[in-house]
Amino acid sequence: MTDFAHSARAVALVFASVFVLAAAGAGCSSSAEDAGCTKNPDDPTRYVTVGFWKTTDCSGDPIQTNAFPIAADAPCYCWPGSAGENSAYKFSCDAKAKSFTYTQHTTLTCSGGNNNTKTVYTDKCVQDVPPTLYARIIDFKACEGP
User: Fold this and answer.
1) Strands 99-105 and 47-53
2) pLDDT score recorded for residue 105
3) What are the boundaries of each domain within the chain?
4) pLDDT digit string, tens, across residues 28-50
5) E strands of 1-145, at which residues?
6) CA-to-CA distance for 31 and 85, rounded, in angstroms?
7) φ, ψ for residue 11, nearest 5 deg
8) How high does pLDDT run on average in the chain?
9) Considering the entire predicted model, what is its pTM?
10) Between 19 and 38, where is the model more confident?
11) 68, 76 in Cβ contact below 8 A?
């Protein structure tokens, strides 16, 4: 083969690899949709945004964020996480304590798997589960009321 043919073949293989990886990654979000997971409304006044860090003081930019619905009777909310599947329900705001509490499961169905009740705050960084993550509320407006 000529150098040009080798280069063209290498480019084609890289493109094919990227396409396969992108298609495989696209399946992650559809699994949550297939499970009937609730999507957050477009209205940011109806959810709390929590940031997650690898630093114990939640300094710098979060490595990821998640927006949780605030309605106590909201249906199961789920999302594909970096360590697997996640779902949450039993949401509650405490405006006085500036905190938000929810129960998280390691499934997409808000049942089974491991579950943890988590409380996060606007003014302090708390160790999350897994214990390599730390969490803090970065948008609490939905819990503050009108």
Assistant:
1) unpaired
2) 92
3) 1-31, 44-144
4) 334 555 556 666 666 767 889 99
5) 47-53, 64-69, 77-81, 84-94, 99-105, 115-121, 126-127, 134-139
6) 9
7) -65, -40
8) 76
9) 0.72
10) 38
11) no
pLDDT digits (tens, 9 = 90+) for 86-128: 999 999 999 999 999 999 999 888 988 889 999 999 999 999 9
Q: How far apart are CA 83 and CA 42, in angstroms?
A: 26
- The token duo for 102 is 């929810």
Q: How many residues does the chain have?
A: 146
Alpha carbon separation from 31 to 15, 42, 101, 108 (Å, rounded): 25, 21, 25, 9
Q: 69 pairs with which residues across the strands? A: 47
Q: Which amino acid, 134?
A: Y
Rounded Cα distance, 127 and 120, in Å: 9
Contact 114, 103 (CB under 8 A): no
Q: Both tokens of residue 100?
A: 């938000």
Q: Which residue has the tokens 């969490």?
A: 135
Cα angle: 86, vertex 59, 107; to 5 degrees: 5
